[in-house]
Amino acid sequence: MPRPRKNRRLRKHHQVKIFKPVGVRLSSCRTVVLLPEELEALRLVEVEGQYQTQACETMDVARSTFQRILAEARRKVAVALSEDMIIVVSAGDARGIRVRWKCCNCGGSWRVLYRNDYKEPEECPYCASHMIREAQTRRHRRQ
Hints:
Elements: E1 9-10, E2 17-19, E3 31-34, H1 36-47, H2 52-59, H3 63-82, E4 86-89, E5 95-103, E6 109-114, E7 132-134
Parallel strand pairs: 1-5, 3-4
Antiparallel strand pairs: 2-4, 5-6, 5-7
Helix pairs in contact: 1-2, 1-3, 2-3
């Protein structure tokens, strides 16, 4: 029995969306289901221009896992576009991303959970300073 799938960290959660070719009926067309983590991988690399090393840290997955997710997403989109298929973006079970912020003035740190749109905080919740930055996360990996 395979182990259960791990939830992925996404900065943007999408509702179910359907993209179909113009002039084609929904009932007469085959579909391709794009998972939320596949759409997020495409967004990070193709839209935001992140390298795979940055993007896999953002999604909290291993680089090899990210490469598989990205390759599958690109394959699905290419097949759907070339064969006039409907692309369905599923809602999935991915969780939001928690980003840690640090104040350069008072040294305080806090986490912000992003589920839909990524909006950076404007000030420190402790001292109201605008001198804040995203803190570096330390990930422990097995060697």
